[in-house]
Amino acid sequence: MSEKSTLSKPIGSGTKSSPLLIGRRLWPYVKPLAWVLLAGILAMAVVAATEAGIPALLKPLLDDGFGTHGASRAKWIVPAAIVGLSLVRGLAQYASGYLLQYVSNRVLLSLRLKMFERMIHASVGFFQRETASTVINAIVFEVNQILGVLLGVLVTIVRDSLTVVFLLGYLFYLNWRLTLIVAVLLPGIGWLVSKINRRLRRLNREHQTFTNELSYIVEETVGGYKVVKVHNGEQYEKDRFGALSKRLRGYQMRMTVSGGLAQPLTQFLASIALALVVSIAVVQAANDQTTVGGFVAFVTSMLLVISPLKHLIDVNQPLQRGMTAAELIFGLIDEPPEPPGGGLPLERARGEVEFRDVSFAYGASHRATLDHVSFRVRPGEMVALAGPSGSGKTTLVNLLPRFFDPTGGSVLVDGVPIPDYDIHALRRQIAMVSQDVVLFNDTVANNVAYGETADRERVKRALQAANLWETVSALPDGMDTLIGDNGMKFSGGQRQRLAIARAIYKDAPILILDEATSALDSESERHVQAALETLMRGRTTLVIAHRLSTIERADRILVMDGGHIVESGTHQQLLEHGGLYAHLHKIQYQQSAA
User: Fold this and answer.
1) Which of 6, 118, 358, 436 is spaced 20 to 30 A from 547 at the CA atom?
2) What CA–CA distance (Å, rounded) separates 321 from 142?
3) Which residues of the chain have a pLDDT value below 50?
């Protein structure tokens, strides 16, 4: 897959959903629980069958229990049957609810684990393309949405369909002539409700769009609160939020108006059907064609059938919501993982790194970021990359751990092209410290030993080597102290040294330093630089630095410009050469002197 397609395709954009397709995609997760699901469906069938039992019991009670034969068995049998029916119905409802939730929660766990696993193994292009909120929404919220909705749809389709079948069958058994009258009016009710539902779906979609925009305003305001306050933008943000909130209120009221019409109109049409049934039933009673019990049982069954029919008509709206959620979920599950590599093991590399005629571009339409770059780094050598912003330095070092693959040429470690290695074996050979330190809301020890089980003595040695042990030992819980969100309890220099301690703990033979000191003040930089000296000892090191003073002691400096290596040599050699490096050094010297 090209880098262009990877960066331009959002989650789920290529996933087409339909109830049948979603069913097929979910089946592998449901299949191990098929017998549990079947038991839940059978329990729902029992619940549906009991719906027709109530009016069926009313008929003998009214016909026999209130007649002149007071001793009739009906007055004892029917009440006992009602209690028994209610007990069976309650047990079946509980069983179906428990069994279906069991299936739902097991499928939810499987889907969520699969999505997180696929996210973890996705390519770097995926993380550059998707926002964190989109991925969080898919894994945490949308998977709940699809299972909740589809479970509700399953219950509605199975239970309410069976309820309608049982009730209509009983209606035909009681009085097929009256049932035909109901059957004629039911399509009219269905058509009316479906029209209202279509309008509600359109309003719901627009309401959801505006809700997302409102959430984004809040997200922007919270994230940019300093800019809002410095520029006195409070009123502007209030006006933006207020205007959109008013539009949302308008849509909510239109949804209320449309949704409120469904029930009274349905009830009005049902009352017409009931009036016709009553009129015809009176005529039939006069001709001894029906009894009081038969009439009451018929009317009760007819009223009971309206609710499940309405549920079946309404099922399309939640089903469409589930389809939308499914596109996001299976779009993430279908995200191609990064290539695993050739499987060649690599216990510990010597540290020889070679870039051989390497080219790279972010998509076919983009200018090449790297253009036929070649150089070799000997084991234990420190090579610095210098040059103006956008010259390709960071892209170059990102190819070494295979965050991206070159579009031309090859990168080699110990003389072997890196795609031949197992990707995890390759990355075990590389430690990286960058300007943008990433720490986790965990203990100091677990941050230092990230990815491994923390060896406390080894963690201590790493912290000492990073000039951070005194700071950590003074904390209330020492190395067991939680450091907060992205290390918020530490200063910038301390966070940087904690990242260095992590690299020391890993003890990888190849080290990448990407602007590791550029954002620090002079005092912090002094401590961090001392820690870096310890870290670099005996390791093959690639260093990127805008502050040229930090790379003066490099064995070799490669100067990049426009994706090419334009100069190469030691610090002194490059100054004497008088080229781009000397020009950049002069500018920085003048700025620091000023």
Assistant:
1) 358
2) 10
3) 1-10, 68, 70-71
